[in-house]
TrEMBL record:
InterPro entries: Peptidase_PrsW_arch/bac (IPR023596), PrsW (IPR026898). Keywords: Cell membrane, Hydrolase, Membrane, Protease, Transmembrane, Transmembrane helix. This is Protease PrsW. GO terms for molecular function: peptidase activity. One of its GO terms (biological process) is proteolysis.
Length: 234
């Protein structure tokens, strides 16, 4: 029961936080839960692919760190999430504003993070509280930030009319989360005395940029909401 609580309580907290942040044109909870479940399912495919890549790892030292952070973790997880988000979001009739793409992406990522939480927290029963705490304040928020980036560019892709820019945004929806995720893992893997300072700076920059992205689409949603109210009064 304790393991269940410390595994799911942070996830539930972030679900409620992101859900109620969408104030003006809130998505149907059933749609968001669909993406959450897709994230859970997706995590098992990621485990299989990552195991395959780990077993075939021929690199050592710094090259091994780069391979592990950017290929095994970054590419595998973000490409899988990106593909699912791209395929399923195209079919959503209610995907009518840019903030929706971020909401789908974050719920997908939180589903993925739920399985990760279960695995990491239950891996070592002696460190269960420490691992749960670290994941709650660092790992899960990082997943959310990667997801905001992905959803931000997926929405730019969806609503862009110019074909060249549309293609560019789709590429960025995959590429930037891979780089952000890979950099996050790479910094954590480096055995260097002062790396914690670099990590803290990176987290602050990551959070600032992505919360600004979220707020940008939130303002767009707010404007759209009041424009529709105004139009309705005419």
């Amino acid at each position: 029961m304790l393991a269940f609580l410390i595994t799911f309580l942070p996830i539930i907290s972030f679900i409620l936080w992101i859900y109620y942040k969408d104030k003006y044109n809130r998505e149907n909870i059933s749609i968001l839960l669909k993406y959450f479940i897709l994230g859970i399912i997706l995590s098992f495919f990621a485990i299989i692919i990552e195991k395959f890549l780990i077993d075939r790892n021929i690199f050592e030292d710094d090259t091994n760190l780069i391979y592990t952070a950017f290929v095994i973790a970054g590419c595998t997880e973000e490409i899988l999430k990106g593909l699912v988000l791209y395929i399923f979001s195209k079919k959503e009739d209610s995907y009518d504003e840019k903030l929706d793409g971020i909401m789908y992406s974050v719920f997908l990522s939180l589903g993925f993070a739920t399985v990760e939480n279960l695995i990491h927290i239950n891996y070592d029963s002696k460190m269960i509280f420490q691992v749960a705490f670290i994941r709650a304040i660092i790992s899960i928020p990082a997943h959310i930030m990667f997801a905001i980036t992905m959803g931000y560019y997926i929405s730019k892709y969806k609503f862009e009319k110019n074909i060249a820019k549309k293609r560019q945004n789709l590429i960025l929806a995959f590429l930037i989360p891979i780089l952000l995720h890979g950099t996050f893992d790479f910094i954590l893997m480096i055995q260097y005395k002062w790396i914690i300072i670099v990590f803290i700076i990176y987290i602050i920059i990551l959070a600032t940029i992505n919360l600004n992205k979220f707020n940008k689409y939130m303002l767009y949603s707010k404007k759209r909401f009041f424009d529709r109210l105004k139009h309705g009064r005419k």
